[in-house]
Amino acid sequence: MTPPQVTPTGSAFAAILAKDLRAELRTLQSLPAMALFATTTFVIFRFGLDRTSLSGSLAALLGVNRLFVAEREEGGFDAIRLAPIDRSVLFAAKATALFVYLAVLELVVVPVFAVFFLDSAAALAPLAAVLVLADLGIAATGTLISSMAVHSRARDLLGPLVLLPLVVPLMIAATGASEPLLAVGGPGYERFATWLAVLSLYDLIFLLVGYAVFDFLLED
Amino acid sequence: MFSKGLAPLAIATAVTLTAAFALVFFYAPLDADQGFIQKIFYLHVPLAIVALCGFVAGGVFAILHLRSGERRWDAWSYVAIHMSVIFGVAVLITGSIWAKASWGHWWVWDEPTLVSFLIVFLMYATYYPFRYAIEDPERQARYASVFAVTAGAFVPLNFIAVRLAESLVHPRTFATANGGLPGSMMLTFLVSLAAMALLWVTLVKLELTAKSASGQLKRLRRAIDAPVAGAGSRIAPEVS
User: Does A91 touch chain B (CB under 8 A)?
Assistant: First the structure.
């Protein structure tokens, strides 16, 4: 009887590594998307958006990705397709859920921020208006993108990849509106109305787009 | 079915492009400040405008696809976005050359027009991995259309937001505060813009014709049980 042959660790390592690299080279599944994601985040950081909105939106990305995963894994999509309801209801409900998550997140973050950085409490009310509009926009685009990404193979990568550039105008407007509000020595209101109008326009357009195209994402 | 009118269109494009370059080099006056390098303006700005309009056109074709369910509109949408991404690369390259020559840097980060174009470009760069990650061709077409509609709505919005975020050095071509462009420059610019737009349409039609030809070839080969050469692209829509 011959003793069992043991493959040397080194050649096993080399074989698995070679297999992984070859698979990636042939399918190109993760590398291009990773490179794009790196570039996008780099661009956003370079654009000098303020840090609170950035951390908020990065947190939102995590929540957004989970939004439809359970639905898909546990067959919720099929159930909703069977039910005699308007499909857009799903969009509305999911977007509202995301909006609530974001609002809860900000209820925790904003007071902490206010205690440390804010001179006067007068800025809190207009700041809340800005945040509500920004959340609404993220909820609309986030729901739309997440419902698209959940059916793809690389959903963990694709969702943030598409969403990140999409929310840039929202972040620009939110930053533009809140920067004078948070200025040292009391809130300022330069171009506050303009920025609010941009935020509302963004919300309106993406809520309408979401409402209009959501049907097509559920069909099969 | 896509090749109809391609030949006259190609001729019109060649004539307009030649006319545009003739005007750029022999007619348009030299810029007082920037000198010769300013002539890249007649390439850079039309390319950018055509690329952005092409992205929006991709969204419109996508709406047609979603409404009618005809695969050929998905092909139109795909090729329109594909061509605009290529034009976008040219915009970034010509823009960098111009920036290096007139501002002294290849890229200026606090310049909203540049960054916003880059964001739109990156957004559309995700169109390819997105299509690639969905296997079922019918669903791929439908989702790609939803993507194209969403992104098409995003293009003008992004520019509104960025325009408002005030720009410092990027020239406003049609700003009328300082009188705008002189007539001879304006004429040259408009001819260049028309030439670029024609070039875009010609290339889109050419690409569609090529796709349809190879699709037909594949079907004929299948019909006579001949081996089908190559696997073909998994993300480009097949057209008849």
Answer: no
The domain of A129 spans: 31-218
ipTM exceeds 0.85:
no
* Selection from B56, B62, B94, B97 nearest residue B78 by Cα: B62
Q: How many domains does chain B have?
A: 1
Percent residues over pLDDT 70 in chain B: 86
Is B122 within 8 Å of chain A by CB?
A: yes
In a domain, B80, yes or no: yes
Q: Do A165 and B157 touch (CB under 8 A)?
A: no
Query: To probe the interface with A, which of B70, B108, B119 has the most A CB atoms within 10 Å?
Result: B119
Read off the pLDDT of residues A32-76 as tens digits, 9 standing for 90 and up: 777 777 777 777 666 655 555 555 555 666 666 666 666 666 666
Distance from CA of A14 to the nearest CA of B (A): 28
CA distance, residue B60 to nearest chain A CA (Å):
13
* Total number of domains constituting chain A: 1
